[in-house]
Design goal:
about 210 residues; mainly alpha; Fumarase C, Chain A, domain 2; Ribonucleotide Reductase Protein R1, domain 1; 3 domains; two-stranded antiparallel sheet; 10 helices; about 60% helix
Length: about 210
């Protein structure tokens, strides 16, 4: 998963992270391109280790409680799995340690007002509107807002109330920049306090 995310995040389309040169290579065709080689290999190594585990368990499956010659075959999978995992961990550590994250780019992506459309529909549900109707209503709001060349967070309270009286100041706050992020306040959510908790837990786990 880490390898897959780093490949995606380091692409020009996302631009969330720049990987260290040591763990990348240049393109044979495009001088400006940096290939996330180690991340791609990390992504590919994961199913290899899973395959080793599956094969290992297949060898050991249903053997009687004693030494069996079948167990001679488990070494290939065990040793390959351990060696592959050690190599993958070294690559992952090197990439993460040297990665440069583009916080501004990530913040801009998280501030896309259209992401809050589902939260707006959920707000209407909490106000008593069936989700089927709230989904249709918010879909209409999104279509008309995009057609006008605007974003949801640009809508005023009067414009929202023109769609439904249930869309009040709470809806405006929800659509405000970072508003929908802060609304996810349950454990593991995207609210800043919850993110800090997860970061603290990760640091404690890593020692």
């Amino acid at each position: 998963r880490l390898g897959a995310e780093l490949v995606l995040w380091s692409s020009q389309e996302f631009g969330f992270v720049e990987l260290p040169d040591r763990w990348t290579s240049g393109s044979s065709l495009m001088p400006q391109k940096k290939n996330p080689d180690a991340a791609e290999l990390l992504r590919a190594k994961a199913p290899r280790v899973v395959g080793d585990l599956t094969s290992f368990l297949g060898v050991m499956h249903a053997l009687p409680l004693a030494y069996n010659k079948d167990m001679q075959e488990d070494k290939n999978y065990l040793f390959d799995g351990v060696d592959t995992l050690a190599l993958a961990l070294a690559a992952a550590t090197g990439m993460v340690e040297g990665a440069i994250f583009n916080r501004e780019q990530m913040s801009d992506a998280a501030s896309d007002g259209m992401i809050a459309a589902t939260d707006l529909a959920d707000l209407l549900v909490r106000r008593g509107l069936p989700f089927r109707q709230s989904h249709a209503l918010v879909g209409r709001i999104v279509r008309e807002t995009l057609a006008a060349g605007r974003q949801l967070d640009s809508l005023t309270i009067d414009e929202l109330k023109a769609y439904s009286d249930e869309l009040d100041s709470e809806a405006v706050a929800l659509l405000a920049q970072d508003g929908w992020l802060e609304s996810k306040a349950s454990e593991g959510g995207t609210a800043l306090a919850r993110v800090k908790e997860q970061m603290a837990a990760a640091r404690q786990l890593l020692g």
